[in-house]
Amino acid sequence: MSKRSIPNVDWANQLESVIRQFVKEKLELIMREEIKNFLEIEQAGTSNMRNGYYQRNLDTQYGRIEGLLVPRDRNGEFQTQLFAPYQRHTGWLEEAIIKMYQSGMSTREIGKFIERILGKAYSPSTISRMTDIVKEDIEKWHKRPLHKRYSVLYLDGLYVKLRRDTVEKEVVYVVLGVNEEGYREILDFFVGGQESAYVWQEILQHLYQRGVKEVLLGVFDGLPGLEEAFKAVYPKADVQRCVVHKVRNTLNRVRKKDQFEVAEDLKLIYRAPNKEMALQMFQQFESKWSSKYPREVQSWANELDVLLTFMDYPSSIRSVIYTTNAIERTIKEIRKRLKPMNSLSSLEAAEKIVYLTIQDFNEKWAGRKLRGFAEAHEALQRMFEERNQIL
After folding, report:
1. What mean pLDDT is predicted for residues 265-280?
2. Model pTM?
3. Is the domain of 171 the same as that of 307?
4. Closest CA to 69 of 28, 97, 105
5. Are 234 and 338 members of one domain?
6. Based on C-alpha coordinates, what's the Rg of the chain?
7. Domain span at residue 88?
8. Where are any strands of DSSP class E within the chain?
9. Same domain for 253 and 181?
């Protein structure tokens, strides 16, 4: 079996060799035309002339091109447009590495993959340096101006393993905004430390400084102090506690045999057609379960106002604002791309992957309104005007 496979391998190698030779010939042809035009047009009337060739290797998506003949002139002024001086590989390599890094491959795995293609080893540190070209983009992205008005800000986070002397779990804060036209966009993210309301407030203040002045609604889970932190930056905004998180936490404290029934009774509350009916459904829930689960029922009673805020908004968007589900897919994708990396070598490594993942989502969302916001546009505009009118 193995003997019969050898000719196939040889044939594949021969084909790769033919392709590389073809690419080499075409590159050399282009450069000969380049220096010809350079001397006949740009250097016309001067004594400058050709001065032979020098050889160099160039890594391409077709493999390594060895002994590439690069023409030169006597004055040393000619420069081909195919690659920069001292460049040893075409731009495809950085792009490929960034794409692989973005997909969750470790720098070691990428290095092995590149070695199989080019026959040349790239160390993890070299791969990491190649992905550093993203760092400048991240810095600019964090400072870009934002819209003045956002109908909704979703706040959520996830924990990742980071190596700083020791490996520990640290949080990635993510803010998703829906602007007044109904378009989604990840506005910012921050990596590091343990999740706290204080850091969330700093992130929100940064958004405010970048132009986010008016917000109708903030949607997030029940992190202690987060509501106060949000209100400190956006005092005129409403707060919606994530109903899905609340239901999940409640069911975790309920006996297994009661979980289905409790979940169905809770649905009658948050799926009611209006707030009046929702309050009636809660009264029924309270009378039915308070003797068996007094703490859980009281917890709902204490938070009912912020759990039912979404009922004050147009019905077309209620299903997307009573929970942080709108941001959950992004969170899951970030987690998925970070998962193969067991632990990240640095804070910068985490930032690069999170940023590249976020850019994918923002590009997809750029031309697509979030469900229900087109129908709610006029009502939301009235809410903006009523809340922000100058008295």
Report:
1. 95
2. 0.70
3. yes
4. 28
5. yes
6. 29
7. 2-133
8. 50-60, 63-73, 149-164, 166-179, 184-191, 214-220, 238-241
9. yes
